[in-house]
């Protein structure tokens, strides 16, 4: 087990290179199963979710080779359609493999997925969508078993715009017979990125980024080299850290449009933000003012993956805020930890009521999940005194070289084995 030791109070100054988006790379890795050719992913992030996905691909018989910052996956030898529970439990995104594994083998057997413990994360929409494409699904001893002779295009209306279900159906439909239309599709930038990748592989997908996606099935896909979009959640986390600590940071290779909901809130807080092509510069030298409310929504609304970091920021602003979590039930597990650092927060159902205090004070706190853990690091960097953030394996799921990047900006943070 590892922990961070953080001496808070340093302002953050300098540039940060943002990694490729975790939530793009995971479905892209699932897509590599759809071809016998090699697919190279550039600037692959060094995070444990990606490493676990590679372990699963290896189990399926694919070969993955790192070369500098890229990863090349060769699925020509893939010969297994089963994802065992020990691997699926490590990573919720293993469920994305259902669509591509079915497409390739006409069979898939996958243990119910794991991932962050942020409330019930059902997969009913994934399964309903696959059924509409002709897949027969049974559930046995914790496994989902899928069979299908021939995937057939169809119209699928999602009950809610699930990111994972949209991506999974896209992956199953690209090589199906005929046309698939996904209605009420999720509109996240990572879905557009998956469309871009699939089309680079020879697929015919259009409409991603809107709520209607049309997929015309093709017989065969080929290999390609692909640079995924920048990680908007990593970018947002650094912006919040700088807003909380003060200083001036510059993010490179980012798309401001993809985090405009956060940039609006940070401007409302009083941060100075300049956007220049693919750069975002944030400057702040004073105590910020609370935003009245922040409410998580599907894209383009405020992302649930930045909710914890934003709440941490509101804790040290002047005034009160209400943060409402609309997507996941238990995404306030970090709140008792922030309270140990002096935060004044009351959670009632989906709402966190925050009364601003002057500063956080250092404390020993426990990361319960990926984004909550990142919020604790932001709080500790801005706090008076020394903090320890325990069980940082959660943070390693989504932030590559996190402490290294923060140290480059002037943060006093080290990783220690316990
Ligand atoms: C993805 C992201 C995650 C982000 C989330 C919401 C990846 C790898 N993960 O997760 O970081 O927090 O989007 O932006 O891209 N739902 C159902 N039935 C289903 C599927 C989902 O009811 O079959 C519900 C969920 O419980 C949740 C909502 O739909 O309330 C959104 O979930 P979804 O968009 O599917 O999130 P993920 O794809 O799991």
Topology readout:
Elements: E1 2-7, E2 12-17, H1 22-31, E3 38-41, H2 48-59, E4 63-67, E5 70-74, E6 82-83, H3 85-88, H4 97-105, E7 107-111, H5 124-132, E8 136-140, E9 143-147, E10 155-157, H6 163-173, E11 179-183, H7 189-200, E12 204-206, E13 212-216, E14 224-226, H8 232-245, E15 247-252, H9 260-269, E16 272-276, E17 279-284, E18 293-295, H10 307-315, E19 320-324, H11 335-340, E20 344-348, E21 351-355, E22 364-366, H12 370-382, E23 386-390, H13 393-396, H14 402-408, E24 412-417
Parallel strand pairs: 2-15, 3-14, 6-7, 10-11, 18-19, 22-23
Antiparallel strand pairs: 1-23, 1-24, 3-5, 4-5, 7-9, 8-9, 11-13, 12-13, 15-17, 16-17, 19-21, 20-21
Description:
The chain is α/β, with parallel strands linked by helices and 418 residues long. Helix content is 31%, strand content 27%. It contains 14 helices and 24 strands. The protein has helices at residues 22-31, 48-59, 85-88, 97-105, 124-132, 163-173, 189-200, 232-245, 260-269, 307-315, 335-340, 370-382, 393-396, 402-408; strands spanning 2-7, 12-17, 38-41, 63-67, 70-74, 82-83, 107-111, 136-140, 143-147, 155-157, 179-183, 204-206, 212-216, 224-226, 247-252, 272-276, 279-284, 293-295, 320-324, 344-348, 351-355, 364-366, 386-390, 412-417. Strands 22-23-1-24 form a four-stranded mixed beta sheet. A four-stranded mixed beta sheet has the order 2-15-17-16. A hairpin with a 5-residue loop joins β12 and β13 (212-216). α1 (22-31) packs parallel to α7 (189-200) and α5 (124-132) packs parallel to α6. The longest helix is centred in the middle third of the chain and has 14 residues, at 232-245. It is elongated and about 65 Å long. The protein starts with a strand and ends with a strand. The model has no long low-confidence stretch (mean pLDDT 95). Uridine-diphosphate-N-acetylglucosamine binds at residues 23, 26, 93, 120-126, 160, 162-165, 186, 190, 304-305, 327-328.
